[in-house]
Design the sequence.
């Protein structure tokens, strides 16, 4: 007889088979876990921001007036302007994304002076007939019939970066904003994500050639304007949906307080109107997404590491929006084009006589509406 063969129990075979399947699965899971931990360490510990979670203001819901009788001034002749200014003779100027300083003559934008820069922002006309222009990358320029001068490029030995808007006082001094003292202009998204107030208001005195810090602690310092009597200066804080004022005269001199808050969006440039009120351009910014952003530091770290993802999550602009604000900060007019059919991403509104000139960073013209 042939010797009998012992057969292995079926349960033992299944156990060995399960072990062979289980161990590779464990190794795969462990590898994925290590990768996830490494990813989180990379995102958090090597992050360019040290974020805080902050309360997001609730934007006001206001009754609005639709923009009407809209005229496109010089369509096709201005390349993405950000602001405009009018001089003592009533001539309107703007600075474009391709470096041209243009002035309006008989309804046509005419090339006047050229600055080799693509980051020109706010500007103001001086009592001497010059223009002072903020260059987000290179400081302040003075532009006149004689040419272009890099007027202020260093502050206390440091390169002036992120200059955003400027206004001249009657004594010739200049008040200007620095959007962020920490982040460079193209890193604006990091300023939003970090959620800390790095903005500044500075004053340049040409008589002594000195620059002083007037106030700091602004959340993305943007537009700046002096009151009609120059007793206070207003600074727009974009990420806080508010404007604050710094008292220059009177019993409150040196005090910083709220001027207007819970605005219907992020305030950009602000300009003084002939009647002493202010026109403020409002950028659409989704408060709901801002609240989601401020619900988790990890979300902020991830978006800081992936700027394209940030730009998809937080969208700026969309439609046209300007508000007219009284000297006490009360909103008295609210002009909108919610769908952006006429214009979108409005960054500035300038009133000249009874007309409002509307400037957009994404347009090739400047809008004009009659206010009466």
Sequence:
């Amino acid at each position: 007889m042939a010797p009998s063969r012992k057969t292995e129990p079926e349960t033992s075979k299944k156990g060995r088979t399960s072990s062979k399947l289980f161990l590779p699965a464990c190794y795969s899971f462990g590898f994925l876990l290590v990768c996830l931990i490494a990813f989180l360490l990379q995102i958090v510990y090597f992050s360019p921001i040290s974020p805080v979670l902050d309360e997001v203001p609730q934007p006001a819901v206001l009754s609005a007036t639709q923009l009407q009788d809209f005229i496109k001034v010089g369509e096709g002749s201005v390349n993405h302007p950000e602001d405009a200014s009018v001089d003592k003779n009533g001539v309107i100027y703007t600075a474009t994304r391709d470096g041209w300083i243009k002035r309006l003559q008989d309804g046509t934008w005419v090339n006047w002076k050229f600055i080799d820069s693509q980051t020109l922002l706010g500007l103001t006309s001086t009592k001497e007939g010059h223009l002072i222009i903020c260059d987000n990358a290179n400081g302040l320029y003075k532009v006149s019939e004689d040419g272009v001068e890099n007027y202020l490029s260093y502050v206390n030995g440091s390169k002036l970066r992120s200059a955003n808007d400027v206004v001249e006082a009657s004594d010739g001094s200049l008040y200007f904003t620095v959007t962020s003292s920490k982040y460079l202009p193209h890193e604006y998204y990091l300023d939003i994500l970090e959620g800390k107030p790095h903005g500044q208001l500075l004053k340049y005195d040409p008589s002594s050639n000195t620059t002083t810090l007037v106030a700091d602690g602004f959340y993305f310092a943007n537009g700046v304007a002096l009151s009609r009597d120059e007793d206070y200066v207003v600074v727009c804080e974009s990420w806080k949906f508010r404007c604050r004022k710094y008292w220059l005269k009177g019993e409150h001199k040196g005090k910083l307080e709220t001027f207007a808050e819970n605005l219907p969006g992020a305030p950009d440039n602000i300009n003084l109107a002939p009647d002493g009120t202010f026109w403020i351009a409002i950028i659409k910014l989704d408060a709901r997404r801002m609240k989601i952003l401020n619900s988790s530091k990890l979300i902020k770290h991830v978006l800081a590491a992936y700027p394209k993802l940030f730009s998809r999550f937080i969208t700026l602009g969309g439609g046209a929006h300007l508000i007219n604000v009284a000297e006490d900060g009360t909103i008295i007019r609210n002009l909108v084009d919610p769908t952006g059919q006429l214009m979108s991403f409005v960054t500035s509104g300038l009133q000249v006589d009874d007309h409002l000139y509307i400037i957009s960073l994404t347009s090739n013209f400047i809008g004009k509406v009659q206010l009466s």
Notes: The CA atoms of residues 321 and 336 lie 5 Å apart. The mean pLDDT is 90.
